Amino acid sequence: MALPYSVTGRTAKVAGLARCPACGTLGQASPKLHCRGCGGVVHARIPFSLQRTWAFLIVGLMAYVPANTLPIMSSTGYTGATSDTILSGVMTLADQGSPGVAIIIFVASICIPVTKFFIIGGLALSLHLDLPLSGHKRHRLHAVTEFIGRWSMIDVFVVAVLAALIQLGAIITIEPGVGINAFALSVVFTMFSALSLDARLIWDGNAT
Amino acid sequence: MSRTLAITLDDLVACRSCDLLHLRKPLALGEQTRCRRCSSIMSTRKPATIDRSLAAVLASIVLLLISLMLPFLSLSRAGIESQISILDAVASLWESDLRWLGLVTLALIVLLPLGRLVLLAWVLAAIRLRRPANRALRSAFRWATRLEPWAMADVFMVGVAISLVKLGSVARLEIGLAFWSLCALIALTVIVTIVLCKDTVWRYLIQ
Questions:
Q1: What domain count does chain B have?
Q2: ipTM value for the complex
Q3: Residue B27: which domain range?
């Protein structure tokens, strides 16, 4: 197929083409396109990108509520039983003299998820409303959310390791609470949400 | 004019993050091109990528297996000593009421990373041995790329380190061999992303 020289400087979509997300091969856009290079499914844009993003984001937000209100861990020892939510766990850590760890958990379990909700929600909203914001800034925000999301899982792994370790020790017991399930779900759904947001939409509205 | 005015699809590259079309330039070894609008990296050509990535991937598989089998922490308290490996940790979550948490942990730190590494090793070995490219290899490499954000061994390590601090006041903890092999694994994961050139691999797979 011959194309005019002037297609460079336009987007593939405007030129009627679609780029394979896996191998980068270009093909002529059509519904149900399979890449002529690698055989994968190709869309000019992720179908229903914004709807998917919102759906996953809302589920992530819904799961984040019980994740914070229900206990993520309860421990029984000679001093009696205590149960901790994410926030009270951070407080306990800070009181017991490990502020560094308290800060890491606070950042991973509270700052990162909340920032992510705002960034993804904000980006999706700016795309819905066609806000004239800088593509470069939004592009950077999008890249950040994909990078930081996975680090929220820290608290889930801490609870898993503690519970496993202590059950073998047999003197005090630590039991994971329902909250940690909700938290893990929230992180996973927010990651799906970030992955569903098609970064190319950011540049479709304005050229700069 | 010596240059023809019409071009074909194969003369073009589109930016992965903003979709802008550029003319494909032949790259020398070690060169890369960036999108002129959003400056994301568009295409790369890394030197000796197949050999280097295959070596790093095989080493990662060995280290991952070591990390799974050997104890990564041992805890002693009032004369009782217990050692756990990652598989023990997952098993004890499974036996308590938290099958779900056990499954998520197993998937994120064992199944998905191992799956990704095995797929990569298979694809790279096939290219190294000059086997003809086929559909299965192309799907394998596509999936290996797709699994990337879900392999969380590095996040797990930070979790382990924090558990150490949390329990430090209650019991005496010692770090096992698997802990160090997990550290090495994370370093290797970074190396794999540095030396692996996806464009080169795709060039071999699509002929």
A1: 2
A2: 0.84
A3: 9-44
